[in-house]
Every structure is written in C-alpha cells, then in structure tokens.
Specification:
The protein is α/β, with parallel strands linked by helices. The chain has helices spanning about 25-35, 60-80, 90-100, 125-135, 145-170, 195-200, 225-240, and strands spanning about 5, 15, 40-45, 85-90, 105-115, 180-185, 210-215. Helix 1 (about 25-35) crosses helix 7 (about 225-240) and helix 4 (about 125-135) runs antiparallel to helix 5 (about 145-170).
C-alpha cells in the first residue's frame, strides 16, 4: 500500500483516509496544511486504489482495508507515535469510525467527512464508480461495454460489503470513547444530507462535533469548502487529549 508520510515536529500523528474511487490525493491538501502546524500526517492509499484499472479495487475487501489501516497504526507506533487521530472522507470516514469503535490504545479521536453511516442506498456510488471507470478506460482492458458491465456488477457486490461494514459501525457507535468530528455537506450528491445529523445523534457516550456546510459537495476535502473544513478540523484536533506528547 502506497503511503504518503509528512513528518511533523510536535510528536502527534494523524491518519487521513480517502474516498472509495480515489486515492490519497483526496486528503493531500488538508494533510499538507495540518503538517505545517507540526502534525505528522499519514495518508495511505487503500489496497487496489490509485491505478487506472478499476478492477484492482474490486480485488480487495473491507477487511483488507481495515488490516491495512491497522498496519499504518502499528508503523506509526514503531516510529514512536503513541497518540494518533484518524479521519476520512466517505468510505475513509466509515473506516476511521470503524477504528474508533475498536478502542485501539493510543487513538485519541477521529471522525468522518460525508460518510455513509449507515449506507442505505449504494446506487449513486456504484454509478460514480462506473463513470470513473469509463473515464479511465484503456483498450487493454478489453471491449469497453463488457468492461464497464463487469465494473458495475463488481462495484455492486463491493458496495454491498461496504453497506454491511457501515451498518456494523453504526451498530457499534456507542463503543466509541474518544471525541468524534463529523462534517456533512448539505449539497452532497451521493448520500442523504441528513446523514451527518443522524450519525451524530447515534453517538451517546462521548463528545461529538457536527459541522454542516451549506453548499458543500461530497468531495469536501478538495472543494471550495476545504479551507472552512480545515479550520474547524484543526480546532477540533487541538482540543484532543494529547497528554503524552
């Protein structure tokens, strides 16, 4: 798994996770800014992502993603980072909150940006996957229409697994005992715009910050609301208990 690591100066580490059809570039801009503030920022590309052939994404499952993220946590621990916060966009946020529900030692907080928890309708994401596969298509992949149909069928199956994970995370939200940050765009084109509010209302045993962005779209980490998101996220991160660093 390709990981971009920006070493910081304050002994505190952040993991930023990307969305379903993308790679670390989703979170690179906010990662660079957080690194300037002294944080070590780890931006992994999930297994199978970051190539032109979308079939590579379908070779891996949600458990592979979870294991890859735990490997990143262990590698940060090996580098001396005992306190880590984890955040993600869309699928990345599902995976980040999945980590929070597991109460891994040293995880001091985290959150999600426009994450489908739970994922009740995967069709918009499947359509986006196929659209992206079409834009990345090369003749070496075989006859185009057959390739795109394989991508639609594969993505549909893959998103069923993501939905299962998202429902599992939703069912375990009250295991979380560290602060949670939730961002929701109110012009999100892929998930219902009340998802963030419903998610925040489902977390009962820890502090939760919900921030909405009136005209924000799904990919908020790279859109015009990126700076506002970064400002609110930075303020949240600075409130976490970094007592060891």
């Amino acid at each position: 798994m390709q990981t971009v690591m920006l070493e910081g100066t304050n002994g505190r580490a952040l993991i930023l996770l990307h969305a379903y059809t993308s790679f670390y570039v989703d979170v690179q801009l906010i990662g660079i800014e957080l690194n300037k503030l002294g944080y070590t920022v780890c931006m992994p590309t999930l297994p199978g992502h970051g190539t032109r052939d979308m079939q590579n994404i379908l070779k891996y499952n949600m458990f592979d993603y979870r294991d890859a993220i735990k490997d990143e946590i262990h590698q940060l621990n090996d580098k001396g980072y005992d306190e880590i916060a984890i955040f993600g966009l869309s699928l990345g946020g599902v995976l980040a909150l999945d980590i929070l529900t597991q109460k891994i030692p040293g995880i001091v907080g985290g959150g999600s940006f426009n994450s489908p928890i739970p994922l009740s309708d995967s069709q918009p994401i499947v359509n986006q996957f196929v659209t992206y596969a079409n834009s990345m298509y090369q003749q070496v992949f075989g006859e185009k229409q057959a390739y795109l149909e394989r991508m639609r069928q594969g993505a549909t199956h893959h998103l069923e697994a993501m939905a299962t994970l998202s429902y599992d995370v939703h069912g375990n939200l009250n295991n979380i005992d560290v602060p949670v940050f939730i961002a929701q765009s109110l012009k999100d084109e892929l998930i219902p715009i009340d998802t963030g509010e419903r998610l925040a209302n489902s977390i009962h045993f820890t502090s939760v910050e919900l921030h909405t962005f009136e005209n924000g779209k799904h990919a908020i980490t790279v859109g015009p609301y990126r700076k506002e998101l970064l400002q609110k996220l930075t303020a949240f991160i600075e409130t976490l208990d970094w007592s060891k660093s």
